[in-house]
Every structure is written in structure tokens, then in C-alpha cells.
């Protein structure tokens, strides 16, 4: 006797979460979307968290496991990250934290009204190819490369002023072809160039960086809520 196929189980409801735009431009637009699950107890385990990140469809989603101590867990749709810039800036802004603790280590945060800043180390950033181009126009005209090693394409738009035009291609093959704003790559570029940068990435997101003492780099940007 042939057994009739069973209907697929409906996906579990998404846990309560906030959606933010991190590293917005000066006009408040753009920024990289971020999902923040404030109560990590509602979604336990790496597999479950990756599934939530995949359903939300953002480059990263952050799960807050202890809001008092700032303990957070960052996931892309396919991998867990020990560090990522825009999730930490976003979580620090949303929860008004002075310290955020991803797996990579302790990250201090501060808020100056318009910008939220974190202090981090470039060596915490995932590997990425930094490729300089001759002009901002050349960067803007790039096609999305095939999946592979992540590419951060950049060019000076005003070298004397430290202004950079950039685009970021994660290359993970998880459906995120281009990141609107990438804090980890900004740290790597700042460490390579050894100077403060004002980076315009994607459609118009803005990231600010400044080298500090003992290998620390400040990374800052604007954050705004998108939904809840």
C-alpha cells in the first residue's frame, strides 16, 4: 500500500527580535540591516540560531545571551562568527552597553549622541582580501564576483582627508552577495593604512575608524531602528 506523502512541518515562529540599520549615512538612510534577538534563551543552539539568521536573511543576526554583561553570539545564515563589527555597534546602541562580549573578547563601547563607537582589534576580523582600485568610480562599477574568499574593494575618494569608497562581497555563497556596511573589513583596512578613515560603503553607508593605542581601533557609526 502506498503511503501518502506527509505535508512538510511548518517552520517554528521567529523569536521576538529588533531590526536595526547600522552605519547609516549622514541623511539617516542606508546602513546594514541587523537582527537582534534580545533574549537568547528563546533560541538555543548553533543550528537553531543559524536557521533564524537564514530566515531573517541579513548578513548577520546577533543573539543576546546576557544583557547585563553584554554577552552576545553572532551568526550569519551559515556560520557562527567570533567577531563582527556592525552587530556589536548595533547591540551596544540598542542595549546602551559600555561593554560587549562576543567570543573574540571584550569590546568597549561608547556613545556620543550621533555615533556609537566600539574598540576592537583587526586580528579579530575574519580573513578578507583587501583590493585597492584606481578610483571610486571603478569600485562603483564592479560586478559581484563569484563565491570564494571575501573581497573588500576600495579606492581613495580623497586621500588627504582619509575618505574611502568601498564595497564588500562576502563570497560565502549564502545568498548575501554584497554587504551594505562591513565593520570588520574597515578594521582591517585601517590597520593596513595606519590612519583614521571615513568610509562610504554600499549605497551610502558611513563607517568611521581611528587607530588607538595597543593595537586597538575605534569603529563608529550611526544606528536607527527599522522595526521590532
Automatic annotation (TrEMBL):
It comes from the Bacteria. It comes from Streptomyces lichenis. Pfam families: PhzC-PhzF. This is PhzF family phenazine biosynthesis protein.
